[in-house]
RNA sequence: GCGCCUGUAGCUCAGUUGGAUAGAGCAACUGCCUUCUAAGCAGUGGGUCAGGGGUUCGAAUCCCUUCAGGCGCACCA
């Protein structure tokens, strides 16, 4: 069943390249229909590398060559012929295309008329943000869990990478019509917090001159002493000389954990990363959700006892071995609470769960997915994004970090040294699963040539132009500029910029679908990389008023996209630099 | 030993989900500020897409294999 072709609808007429690709798809699909060929589910279209190859191209004829058993160019010819007939019928629509031609091994290249591009661009200025947005999510609920660092120490650089990615991805998905919940899971139960508590307890005793044996695997960082001081300040010497046992041990563990968490929250705030929910692991125990979940799995027959421990039959769901939930000593494993946690997530009515984990946890994925499946959910519902290790360098040399001695460079220190925007931008110029070398000297000393400044500077320049334009009596807002005539724009760079801007929604969509914010980063660099040379070659505020107005419109478009993109990445867009 | 990630220009990395002649930024060299911000611009050089096989009209992209780096293979978190 073919859709009705109505090209003169404003929705198609006045929109952007993304819709233009849809227009091309529709035409192609219709052409195939008339040839008696069933169209593929998704007709491939792409932006050709060379400008001379048109604005949009499709390798459709080539991919059909096999099934039709005919030469690609012959197929292309027939498609183009049908398109000619369709456009003739549709009336007015042919006005959008400058030419449609066959090239290379069988590409069909579409070139839009310049006026058509200009019309779309003006529409964009008047529409504003609505132009960028496509409702891809349609209200689907996504829970995105990230950072979730143990509250036993300060955040380090790797956490920062996860934070930057999670925040940007959340922004991106929310902008695309998903209902996003940002969540931090706090591992505030179990052995590690106890160990933190004991470490603090030992330092506390030291403050009063009492030698308390420091726990074997204790936390040796400087911050432990800070916490001990804090407690000494609040409570004085009332714990002096006591044993580390309940209820004192609980007090120290909980207090240390709470204080550490407060530091983490402050650091994340300083990094510009916010969460909607802080989910406590301890709360899962307090509300009996961990034993409850095990019981639930047990009723389904996925649990057994062996050698005094309680096991989950993970192998039934594709994991390589079964996993312990309750140790023979009676304690729950981390995995046990994790099952309960993920049950809570899916029970919350989320259509999709995204976890951002450090790559060193990748071996953990099959068992969590297995647990989800045992709970009755498709494992596809959970998507785990692995963030690779960040190697911290200074001047090309690795910065020594000894976890044993508790010496490591924290996220806060890096932010203080190189700045939050730069740090985020560097994280977001890599895809998550590639290793990342973070060189402090490069990030900082090269700040003049840092890519983040390159992008921000383009926006600052545009704002500077606007200030000057306002002084000269131009009305500088997107609505009035959206009504300016664009026909004075005759430079090839100007058309190129307009096409790039019209491509922004497609870039967003690709980033959303792939769940990869770094695509936005690259897009912005490309856009800025087109604007700076243009600015350098042509005066925006030219002698003729009409030309100035048209160029101001162009600048407005560039600025709007830059600001929107930076905002999604969580990076500032200063008006002056 | 098994599993996952990575390998693209001297360095750091992209590469639109299999398409046309593989890109950018650094670094190197040469130029450009009395005109809207030089955190900028113009120009030059730079490649066995780790190696080898395969799949097909077409491969950096998919499959197999070898090599190299990283990370996992707990009744740890």
Write up this protein.
The two termini are 56 Å apart. With 577 residues, the protein is of the alpha/beta class. The chain has three domains: 10-112, Gyrase A, domain 2 (2-Layer Sandwich), CATH 3.30.1360.70; 141-189 and 274-446, Rossmann fold (3-Layer(aba) Sandwich), CATH 3.40.50.620; 450-569, Isoleucyl-tRNA Synthetase, Domain 1, CATH 1.10.730.10. The chain has a five-stranded parallel beta sheet, sandwiched between helices. The protein contains 23 helices and 14 strands. The model is unreliable at 1-15 (pLDDT under 50). It is 51% helix and 12% strand.
Provide keyphrases for this structure.
RNA-binding, Rossmann fold, globular, Isoleucyl-tRNA Synthetase, Domain 1, 577 residues, five-stranded parallel beta sheet, single chain, three-stranded antiparallel beta sheet
Strand order of the largest sheet: 6-5-4-10-11
- Return the CATH class of the largest domain: Alpha Beta
- Chain-averaged pLDDT: 89
Terminal Cα span: 56 Å
Count up the helices.
23
CATH architecture of the largest domain: 3-Layer(aba) Sandwich
Binned strand content = 5-15%
Estimated radius of gyration: 29 Å
CATH homologous superfamily annotation of the largest domain: HUPs
| Number of separate structural domains | 3
Percent range for helical residues? Answer: 40-55%
Q: Which fold name corresponds to the CATH topology of the largest domain?
A: Rossmann fold
What's the main sheet like?
5 strands, parallel
Give me the secondary-structure category.
alpha/beta
Shape: globular
Number of strands: 14
Spans of 5+ residues with little confidence (pLDDT < 50)? 1-15
